[in-house]
Amino acid sequence: MTHSIALNFEDGVTRFVEARAGETVADAAYRLGINIPLDCRDGACGTCKCRVESGSYDGGSYIEDALTDEEAASGLALACQARPKTDMVVAIPAASTACKTRPQSFETVLRRVERLSDTSLAFMLDRPAGLAFLPGQYVNLRVPGTEQRRSYSFSSAPGADALSFLVRDIPAGLMSGWLRAAQPGTAMEFTGPAGSFYLRDVTRPLLFLAGGTGLAPFMSMLGRLVETGCDHPVRLVYGVTHDADLVGLAQLDAYVAALPGFSYVTTVAAEGSTHPRRGYVTAHVEAGWLNGGEVDVYLCGPPPMVDAVRGWLAAQGVTPNAFHYEKFSPSGPAEAGRLAA
Question: Is the dihedral of CA 297, 121, 305, 190 positive or negative?
């Protein structure tokens, strides 16, 4: 029996490898030419120490100098000793280039483009063979006819047979301008997947905060949760600037019906909005949703929104168990990070 291991490197590149029965994380990676840093293979040096973000495994044998009991309890493991029992996501504290690997390139074709509103588009691509990704990640798409690339988060779940993305329609935008006249069947190319903003194992309530097309990665996460099930409450606050920016509501309603425990609210910031809820997302987070800190918060939006939410959380005097965020600019993700208690 094999298990899939997603190796997420510190530069955001993700590579998937298959571990054979009884094979360690390091050996599975090495078999594909990915050299996880290590100085021994005996659990003695600690050089291959990594963080297991999800999945279960046999930690193997090692000495205290290489990995303490406290580190092991916090989710750290030695790649030369850890043997997967399930599929895993492993954060490697090294750049992909240092491990002699790089992002994968894929060729595909455009299925269709949909006009969602005056300000938003969606487009779908055929899923190329061999592609795997984590819910919340993005790819770097080449704009056809140019050498320019733009970054977009998947809005489709990892198990979907087609890839979907949300795009803000910027009048002078290179990709959105191309999409307005794009024809189905056009060849497209991208590299990826990439990004450290992805759904971890769900062991407590979730709070999702989305700004604008920052909704996309949450659509992917919700799709995954529908596939796997979820025993904890999942709440989404989705904020936009103008009424026309609210998109994807029919899909969110479908997730409400398919995923027990999921609910969402929307809010619009513009002064002239007729939406029943106004203001920023933080004005519509109920106090109980922070659960005294026993909550994992995921946030995706433009940099001012991310900075404002971080300040707001600090002002509440509640530190969430984990706070994963991604800032994005109009041309793609700008920064991702993780703050944890």
Answer: positive
